[in-house]
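Exercise: predict the structure of this protein bound to glutamine.
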Amino acid sequence: MKKVTKTAALILAMAMTVSALTACGESSATTGAADTETADDGAGTTDAAVSDEAADDAADAGSTAVTRTEGVITFGTNAEFPPFEFVAGTGVIDQYDGIDMAIAKQIAEENGMTAAVENMEFDSLIVALQNGQIDAVIAGMTVTEERLEAVDFSTPYYTATQVMIVREDSDIAAAADIADKKICVVQGYTGEVCVKDMGYPYEAFKKGTEAVMELANGRCDVVVIDSATAQKYVGDNAGLKIVEDSAAFESEEYAIAVQKGNTALLDMINKAIDAKLADGTISELGVKYTEEAAAE
Ligand code: GLN
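Solution:
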């Protein structure tokens, strides 16, 4: 119950914070305002940048091909990131289920289209988008300055943070404590970027489940990973707990990525996200999927 409540609180914080564009407090030297402090008054929210041109671009969207297959938005994801995307017996899009998958489906439907999913490694998503293999990425993907150089991001729809998963008997209480510990991360995740920026040695795994297995088996001491996913793993594996350090790990915002300059698709996505944030649908999805995870 405690876990659910905490996650719900995080979800309710969605779209209320300014975008820090980095995952780690200490390493955000180039982000300008709100570097080390996350303002809590909602000033300077990131969606201001998209709202102005949205109406004009939407008018242009009309008959031009905004996606690779007409009438279909092909979303790339990495279905290894519960509760946002995972493979299920019956998912909301084919076998794919989770908060992101439900959002993707609703975005497509709001625009009179259908949603398709291409499942691939997290590391391959941005390249696949750039190559036109997929139309958009929805993968619990954090907006970062580096990624912004390669893709355009939608209005953020979820606020998260990196946390540390440790064994229950661990003496790790803060990020500084992991300096001389064996650290596991997942390759290409912002957790890896954080640990790298901190200057600590680490081992990177392809999947979160692999890193968590190393931890459970005592072959590593800490896994640095996104908060909601960490809660799912701790719920699934006895003997593990979460340690937070909000000074070391700043809040992150998840958003949907499209090819640079695909404003027609971005506007369609943003309109749907804005509506789903405003009417509470995304918040409800967050609660639904975290409760399901906790109840398993
Ligand atoms: N939020 C993290 C990132 O963007 C992890 C995302 C994921 O694994 N799907 O790197």
